[in-house]
Amino acid sequence: MNILVSEWIKMRSVRGTWVMAVSTVIVTILVSLVGVTGLVGEGAVVPDDFDPTAAGFKGILVGQLLIAALGSQAITNEYASGQILSTLSLVPRRRTLLLAKLAVVVMIAVPTGAATVVGAFGASQATLAAAGWPVATLADPEVLRAVACAVVYLVLGSVLGLVFGVITRSSSGALAIIVTVALLIPALAPGIPGVVGQVAGTYWPTTAGQASYTVVSTGSLSPLGGLAVLTITTIWTAAAASLVFSRRDV
User: Fold this and answer.
1) Rounded mean pLDDT of 93-98?
2) Do residues 135 and 125 lie in contact, with contact meaning Cβ atoms separated by under 8 Å?
3) Exposed end of the chain (fewer CB within 10 Å): N or C?
4) pTM surpassing 0.90?
């Protein structure tokens, strides 16, 4: 418990933690609004398979980078300042230390993710309603599930940020991996020919995870199945980071 309290004090006392948390909320909402505004422009026609819930979550593509950066800061700041040496001397049980950092990151990511998703959903649905387009409400079938899954998606993004920070020991290194995993590979996957492209376009962890916060499914993977793929990937990546952290000198 003392380790958990210590890690909480570290995270809450760093200004960057709250800058990244607030930035995640604001930027995600703004990008979602930009996406919806562009969608309902003059002369636009409502597509047959239009999903107002998923349309309002376009900003999550950017928000996941910011919340991952928040997660990585839980350890990369200590490597940058050299404080990691004193931390490890006080807490030699490295896996216990990593679990404490993980718990604190999740404690911050859950309310941050909830505020982000609720804000993006409310603002985007209001914009759609003003344009006369179909809207989603929490009372509609599957919408509440999609909202909850979007929050979980962001929380898992913060965990991935932490574990990549553990592996790379660098904020820029962790962010580079997150950008590659979350944006670059999903963008390139559809262009890969054959079965490899089809599998990558469906089962790549972040692509699969993004299917979890849709209501109108357009792929072969169910929303909860997509979230399961991302969750399992996160767990295995965290296990690998724990192994690296426990066996590396520093």
Assistant:
1) 92
2) yes
3) N
4) yes
